[in-house]
Design brief:
Blueprint (H helix, E strand, L loop, with lengths): L1 E5 L9 H15 L3 E7 L17 E5 L1 E4 L2 E7 L3 H11 L3 E4 L4 H13 L3 E4 L4 H7 L6 H12 L4 E4 L2 H9 L5 E3 L17 H6 L5 E6 L8 H15 L3 E6 L5 H7 L4 E5 L7 H7 L2 E4 L8 H8 L4 E3 L15 E3 L4 H13 L1 H16 L3 H37 L1
Parallel strand pairs: 1-2, 1-6, 2-3, 6-7, 7-8, 8-9, 10-11, 10-13, 11-12, 13-14, 14-15
Antiparallel strand pairs: 4-5
């Protein structure tokens, strides 16, 4: 099987979509699938948070520039003919457009031009982001654009029941909930150690962790407000560590109360697992997550999760089983933080529940499911082609 992946985001760029796409490429290669990849270029001095390079032999890198409001996002130049020539040379059986932007659309165009099946991924409802960025009038046009992009797909892979419901509501019924998984060997409670705590001077404090891109839609201001309220009660007994970077970082740093450490991006494979395991609980306030990969990584690391049960997070968060569900207000976040600090038995029980939940989600199984889904799409396409040939044969016979 030959699969061409076309994505607008890939390591060293850091976000949930780039991480999942890189894991997919590696997983397919490990399963003997011949993978081609089209992606934007990155600056030569870009520092990766990955320890290894996730690039197959057949890779086309398109010239790109930084997106002005968020330079970490790369915008590929629309080299349609270059992508089509690369696709013809690679001869894919199927094209997977992982994103809905320039590269994903060029991949969809190439699939159409080559006459091979197209599958897509719907990771993010970007229409929701229009509110966070103060552009609510864009919500309808963005929604229409997303729907048009995914309409031709033989299958749409999406990571949660919430996003599958969104697709169905907009007439896109060929979706499959896929990708809800975490590597439970990399992210493991046994990676806990004193190094991070010593490096940050955390002492004996209970450490709450947040990992993710620092952007308006992530709602990190809510975490800071909730932590400030909790710290008014708990004092130095509690600390908050925020790993990640993004356009909101300067304003968040300026608004942060005492006891908050911003540590930027860190190496995902070498350092992040130990950081998770060395914390005591995880905080997530985003209401726009389609998967919430960081939530699953935290659970796999044995951390109870405090989160707003919205989007894909709602598929995994079980109140008082593996974490605490909170309302999107500071007082609710503060109450959860205080409860976990003051009740060690509750914290330990929820941490065990979090790990149990993650263990039940096997990333290797999800990769096997993806290969199986590709084969189903190819079988359906072959059947449709055979049916079309059969249905036209009598007409040609009658004409002769």
């Amino acid at each position: 099987m030959r699969v061409l992946h076309c994505t607008d985001t890939y390591p060293p760029e850091v976000n949930g979509v780039s991480v999942v796409t890189a894991l997919v490429v590696d997983g397919l290669l490990a399963r003997g699938v011949n993978v081609g990849l089209v992606l934007p270029s990155h600056p030569a001095d870009a520092v990766s948070v990955f320890a290894t390079t996730h690039l197959p032999t057949a890779t086309l890198t398109l010239p790109s520039c930084g997106f002005p409001p968020y330079p970490g996002i790369r915008l590929a130049l629309p080299r349609a003919l270059a992508v089509e020539r690369f696709a013809r040379a690679f001869q894919p059986d199927i094209v997977h457009a992982d994103t809905e932007f320039i590269v994903g659309r060029l991949g969809a165009r190439a699939a159409r031009r080559l006459g091979v099946p197209l599958v897509t991924s719907f990771h993010t409802d970007f229409a929701q982001y229009t509110e966070a960025y103060g552009l609510p009038w864009l919500r309808r046009p963005v929604t229409r654009s997303l729907v048009r992009f995914h309409e031709p797909a033989a299958r749409i892979f999406t990571p949660s029941s919430v996003t599958a419901g969104w697709l169905a509501t907009h007439g896109l019924a060929r979706s499959e909930v896929w990708g809800r998984a975490v590597d439970i060997n990399i992210f493991h409670p046994a990676r806990r150690g004193a190094a991070w705590r010593e490096r940050l001077g955390l002492g004996e404090a209970l450490v709450f962790l947040h990992v993710g891109r620092l952007a308006p839609e992530k709602n990190v201001t809510l975490l800071l407000a909730g932590f400030a309220a909790a710290r008014a009660t708990l004092g130095d007994r509690v600390r908050l560590v925020i790993a990640g970077d993004g356009p909101a970082a300067p304003s968040l740093r300026a608004a942060a109360p005492a006891g908050v450490d911003f540590i930027g991006f860190i190496n995902r494979e070498r350092d992040l697992p130990a950081l998770y395991a060395s914390a005591d609980a995880f905080l997530c306030s985003s209401t726009t997550e389609t998967l919430g990969l960081v939530v699953l990584e935290a659970m796999a690391s044995g951390l109870p999760v405090v989160a707003v049960p919205a989007g894909g997070v709602a598929d995994h968060l079980r109140h008082h089983d593996n974490g605490l569900a909170v309302r999107p207000d500071a007082s609710s976040v503060a109450a959860a933080i205080v409860a976990l600090v003051d009740q060690p038995a509750l914290r330990a029980r929820l941490g065990r529940g979090a790990r149990d939940w993650a263990v039940a989600i096997d990333w290797e199984r999800e990769l096997d499911r993806l290969v199986h889904s590709y084969r189903e799409v190819l079988d359906d396409d072959a059947g449709a082609a055979s049916g079309a040939t059969t249905s036209t044969a009598p007409a040609r016979s009658r004409a002769s």
